[in-house]
Amino acid sequence: MNFLKFRLLYGIIMLSLIFSGCTYAKKEKVAEGVVGKLVATNEINNVHSTITSREYILKDSSNSVLTPENIGSLDNRIMEFARNEIFARHGYVFKRKDLQDYFAAKPWYQPDATYKEHLNPAEKQNVALLHDYEAKYADYKLESAHKDDVHLRSYIGDSSFKQKKMKVDLNGDGHEEEIKLIPPETELGAFKLKVKDITMELGSELLPYLDIVDLNIDDPYFEIALQMDSQMDFLRSTSFYVYDGETLKRIGELPGFSAHSLMFDGHGRVVSAKGSKDFQTWFRDLVFRLNIDHSLQEEHEDFYPMDPPNAFND
Q1: Which of the four pLDDT bands, split at 50, 70 and 90, describes residue 152?
Q2: Where is average pLDDT lowest: 83-97, 145-159, 178-192?
Q3: Cα–Cα distances in angstroms (integers) from residue 147 to residues 135, 152, 199, 237, in the given order
Q4: Looking at the DSSP assignment, which residues form a beta bridge with residue 181?
Q5: What's the predicted TM-score (pTM) here?
Q6: List of residues 6+ apart from 247 with CB closer than 8 A
């Protein structure tokens, strides 16, 4: 009888082990399936996150005469590429490596060593207009505002050429968007930014300056930059916005003036000067980069040097 009980108990234990093993194996297969789906999803996301560059800066610059509303608030890097784009359409062979690399990535560019820089009348007018605005931009400089701290920067020169209304292809789809900077309706009101049918209140009474910049020349987007001026250095800021064809999103608010091409490299890196909160006599440069969500994210440093030393930190 004891032997029978032992066999019965042994059988129950074995069945339990077998059942547990099957359940574990089934869970393992389910887990493998989940991992497989996650990998597949990530692969799909990676495909969708691969952003191609824009084909043209100014799509119709070879056959339509440009106006200040097309280029007046573009940063000088965009204008230089736009001017050279006119020649690139004819196959002009560039000597500068950055221009060689930029246009070599365009599917329409076919180098032609025999091209003699001939332009049609519209192209000639557009090249002249772009040259004129590049010169205006060159005179409108962002320079160190204080001899004791090179990080504190202010604009010098005439900014009257900047436009408050622009027609620009913001998302690289070949169609222009109308961009407006709308002043307050009342004395205590705030400025508004309008792109096509989208209006966004800026929430500030400070006078913003509209700039169209290209923070990353390898993606299809131009960014809208609004530089908020103030007599107080610590209140100055730059807000960046991106339009994807459907939505308008603010991608970062940086301290100081950051919309001048001096402050970004065209490959997603932006520099901005921030004043010290604890000891408000010096500034330091912060570095921001565009992340995968096309937002500006600060790169934190372990050490922020004061270079060159100023009168307050000898």
Answers
A1: confident
A2: 145-159
A3: 26, 9, 41, 21
A4: 193
A5: 0.79
A6: 198
